[in-house]
Amino acid sequence: MSIVLFDLDETLINGDSASLWSAFMLEVGLVDNAFLSQERAIMQKYSSGKMSMSEYMAFTLTPLRALSQQKLADYVAHFVDKYISSRFYPQALEKINDYKQANRRLIIISATADFIVTAIAKKLVIQEVIAVQTEVVDGCYTGKTIGVLSYQQGKVERLKDYLGNEYEGLIRTATFYSDSCNDLPLLNEVAYPKVVNPDEMLRTVAEHSGWPILYWH
């Protein structure tokens, strides 16, 4: 069974789920306006591929320290219903449905925190997720991450670890949908790169490489 990989933000949904989560945290009183301003300042470097994901995760996970898994799950369920459910690209939903009917193996691979990506994947009825792993100790979040961050080359490393011995065989027929230049390492690995609503850098590479460019709305 061949695999189809999907980035999440600006690929399956119209928006960035991590930034939307920060806005939600402000709404429910977990952070203040100064936090949101700093989050936006860090994110400005993302489209140029110069953002430090470790810095971003350390900053944005700090408000969740000592929060229980159940309390965070309640927050995330509310977040997905209010901030995400209306943002799925219809074309993405059609693709997902087509691939399911063709019995393809679907995996969402994202640089967003696992508790967010897993909840969104559940909404799409996609069981497999690779995301930034967050640490939980005694049922509570520590505000730290675990292992390699699934960002830039880290996505390739995490996928190799996830698929294990299957990687070499599966990557030869794999498809990957993404909008971001940060995903070029993985786009260059798969057999069928698909570029969705690309940033300027990725669009330039896609045009030069002859990759399909899709515009979803």
From TrEMBL:
<dbReference type="GO" id="GO:0046872">
    <property type="term" value="F:metal ion binding"/>
</dbReference>
<keyword id="KW-0479">Metal-binding</keyword>
<dbReference type="InterPro" id="IPR023214">
    <property type="entry name" value="HAD_sf"/>
</dbReference>
<dbReference type="InterPro" id="IPR050582">
    <property type="entry name" value="HAD-like_SerB"/>
</dbReference>
<keyword id="KW-0378">Hydrolase</keyword>
<dbReference type="Pfam" id="PF12710">
    <property type="entry name" value="HAD"/>
</dbReference>
<protein>
    <submittedName>
        <fullName>HAD superfamily hydrolase (TIGR01490 family)</fullName>
    </submittedName>
</protein>
<dbReference type="GO" id="GO:0016787">
    <property type="term" value="F:hydrolase activity"/>
</dbReference>
<dbReference type="InterPro" id="IPR036412">
    <property type="entry name" value="HAD-like_sf"/>
</dbReference>
<dbReference type="InterPro" id="IPR006385">
    <property type="entry name" value="HAD_hydro_SerB1"/>
</dbReference>
<keyword id="KW-0460">Magnesium</keyword>
